[in-house]
Design brief:
Elements lengths: L1 H5 L3 E5 L1 H10 L3 E4 L4 H7 L6 E4 L3 H12 L3 E4 L6 H11 L5 E4 L13 H9 L3 E8 L2 E3 L7 E3 L4 E6 L11 H27 L1
Parallel strand pairs: 1-9, 2-5, 2-6, 3-4, 3-5
Antiparallel strand pairs: 6-9, 7-8
Helix pairs in contact: 6-7
């Protein structure tokens, strides 16, 4: 059912050159907001990407969806199992692309947690910020206002330039990079909305 619905979506992509440049630097660490997880799962399906999911009930539900779309999962969150999941991602990113919803699993919405930039520092792999916005969708009454795209809608996807965090980065630099990630995601959202308005 989910795959049948996903097959009706049409994607318009901006900034694909950033994806290419990120891949040239290493396996990308994909980063988006939690509220756009469903269209992101559809777009990147069947690429054997490893996504971090929480260890609570919501994480179990999401892990099942991810598996159906060809993803692997690392279980953990900012509140439970984080170190275990990040250690797994350090191993996985050597061979696979990994993905974060950077304000998950419980928010606050649109505030990036440090996991993605920490992983870039630990591995040297680039963080690739992106945003997806759907022209027609349902919005859930959740903390992140999750979008569920309606059938046959157009979705705009925008990639930002990759961010690479130096292995020598201290806590101050890590926070600067975390805030740079937030700004990049905001810019991507602005571009997506402009794409859908034309």
């Amino acid at each position: 059912m989910a795959r049948a619905l996903a097959s009706t979506y049409r994607f318009s992509v901006d900034g694909s050159e950033h994806l290419v440049s990120a891949q040239a630097l290493g396996r990308p660490i994909l980063a988006c907001w939690h509220g756009r997880i469903l269209p992101a799962v559809v777009y990147f399906r069947d690429q054997h990407i490893v996504a971090i999911t929480s260890e609570n009930f919501d994480g179990e539900w999401m892990a099942r969806i991810l598996t159906k779309f060809g993803y692997g999962t690392a279980r953990g969150s900012s509140s439970r199992g984080a170190r275990k999941a990040l250690r797994q991602l350090v191993r996985d990113v050597r061979e696979k692309t990994v993905a974060f919803t950077v304000d998950g699993p419980r928010g606050p919405a649109r505030v990036a947690q440090p996991g993605a930039v920490w992983l870039s520092k630990a591995t040297g792999n680039p963080v690739l910020p992106f945003h997806i916005e759907s022209a027609k969708h349902w919005s859930l009454r959740s903390w992140d206002r999750t979008q569920v795209p309606k059938p046959f809608t157009t979705l705009a996807l925008s990639f930002a330039a990759p961010l690479v965090v130096a292995r020598t980065a201290d806590a101050g630099v890590l926070d600067e990079q975390r805030r740079a990630l937030e700004r990049a995601l905001e810019d991507c959202e602005t571009r997506c909305r402009a794409m859908l308005s034309t």
